[in-house]
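Blinded run. Sample ID left blank on purpose so nobody reads anything into the name before looking at the predicted structure. Input follows.
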Amino acid sequence: MEKTANDTLRLRREEGSRLIQENFETFRSLVVQAKDHLQQGKYTEAVVYVQMAALYAFWRHSGIFASPELEQILCAIAQRTIPVYPQKSQASSGTPRKVLHVASAVQGIGGLGRMIWRWIQQDTDSSHSLVLTQQPSTSVPSILKDAVYHSGGKIYSLNETTIGGILSWAKRLRKIAASADIVVLHIYPDDAIPIIAFANKEQSPPVLFLDHADHGFWLGASVSDIVINLRFSGMRLSQERRGIEPERVALLPIILPPTQRTLSRTEAKRKLDIDENSVLLFSVARAPKYKTIDGVNFADAHVPFLEKYDNAVLVVIGPGDSEDWSAAVERTQGRIKIFAEREDTAVFYQAADIYVDSFPIISITSLLEAGSYGVPLVTRYPYSDACGILGSDAPGLDGNMMRASNLEEYIAILSRLVKDKELRLSLGEATRKRIAETHMGSNWQHSLEEVYTKANALPRVTLKPNLKDEMFLGEPDVLLPRVFWHACGQGKIDPESLKKWNMIPFVQRFGFWTNQIKKHGFGRSGRIDLLLPQWLYWNLRKYVIDVVKKVY
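Blinded prediction complete.
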């Protein structure tokens, strides 16, 4: 078995090396096109190609985690287009610190949205505002809206309220930030708007970058006075592969709310109509994190264990019907239960006897939330020490979470936990205590204050000129294409499909729209949102919704 696993990893490395070289070539072609547009003074088009290159490098790993060349393009555009706004003086003693959070978009499901609103709820000594670069304010989760407004802050939606395109939004963001004491970026890997807004560091507030997508490529290294890492493996990668200076990295645990059990395990199982005498294994993550890899899906991996222990049940929230697990469900007589993504997960956590991490892509927030209920945690890590970014690690998890290097060890760990209730309870309690000491309340706030202090003490970061993008063909790089290629969609990506057409000038957008109609006819290809600029589309949509509400 071990030989088979080693052969599989060897084949993955060989395949990854080949794919990275192909991907890097495509990435370079997009960088060249971005530079060409910059030289022609077509700044909006240049930004679009920068974003295309960044998004391509994220979805199709190209042997890089940051691109000095793309950052230099955005810096050049900023110097020519973004005015310098007078910066407010430091907040006086007794005055609430003004924190400006900048996010591309937020959802009710997923760890990023939770991190933002829990941060705001916990940091009560500050006033928090939120700028959204790619999302209308009407779709912001109500819990986040409430957190912002209760702190005395505001919500700004750039693509909804600011006429124009990328450069207009970047100017608006910089103007909003002029009244902030500190800026925190929670952005998508390809979001160039904040990088343009803060590329000119003159009179800029300190900019913190939350590294929530630490496994992949992202834009923003050049403007980040501090890169906030959520785990040790991400911190190492920031320094080794993104070029972040050691004094500019900081570790901030993922914040969790105080956890209060409202149900015993037995009561929670009853509510879920699960036998109270069963041993419940639980897992929750977004659907792509359970994507089948190497022919063995997440459910299949648990079949031998479930066949051995007929009192065990596996419940998984996230995949829904995105994966065909029917054979595994049948072999275990329905003891594998699958749900689509949902927000009401507390009862499942409270029913769980053992939490099993998602695979092939881990979910740290879910691990922490499970551990906060006193549930023992198990994760799989079939990689070398060089691939820490592919595994689960975080303050509060390290030292208590049980890690398996292969399926045989994984099943052995689960078997031990099933048979030893006292071990489950003691390990779960130790995990709960450690997470509470690190990720909650005043303990977390202390870590945050250290980050704020560090950001204010450091001089503003400066862009290192003339650096070139260099491809790397070692680990973890050579394993990333295989893992994320399967998790995020197979096959090649057409770079043109990544272009954000509603961000480019109208003439080009109209040409694209008519070509789509010629190729595919009306219908989805003739959608008006492909033709209209974002600010106009969202305002028309909002107007129509308001009219419909009045009528009905």
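Unblinding after everyone has recorded impressions. The longest strand covers residues 97-103.
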